[in-house]
Specification:
- The chain has 110 residues and is mainly alpha-helical.
- The chain has 2 domains: 56 residues, Arc Repressor Mutant, subunit A (Orthogonal Bundle), CATH 1.10.10; 49 residues.
- Helices cover 64% and strands 11% of the residues.
- The protein has 6 helices and 3 strands; from the N terminus they run H-E-H-H-E-E-H-H-H.
- A hairpin with a 5-residue loop joins strand 2 and strand 3.
- Helix 2 crosses helix 3.
- The model has no long low-confidence stretch (mean pLDDT 92).
Length: 110
Amino acid sequence: MKVVWDLRQATVREVYEKLRERRPIAYTTVMTMMNILEQKAYLKRRPAEGRAYVYQSARPKAQIIRAMVQEFVNRVFNGSAEPLMVQLVKDRHLSRAEVEKIARAIEEGK
């Protein structure tokens, strides 16, 4: 998703080439992942020249991130965000200022 967001729209080949700049990855892995993201309605595609498709974000970035986080929390933590937050605080060694910022966001969300 990050590559598609950066490029605004991209073919599987373009995403593959961008990802290969950072690490080895198979073209078929990128194609499979993009198909899954399309099935989950995070990406939408339209035909391009030849056999390729051009993909772009199906919804605004913030909506997709929210949906992905919720999907993760549901799948891994049975819908409860508390164990995720506790784990993040423990593992990331958040500063007092960061914890206070999170606390303010929680209060604003109530």
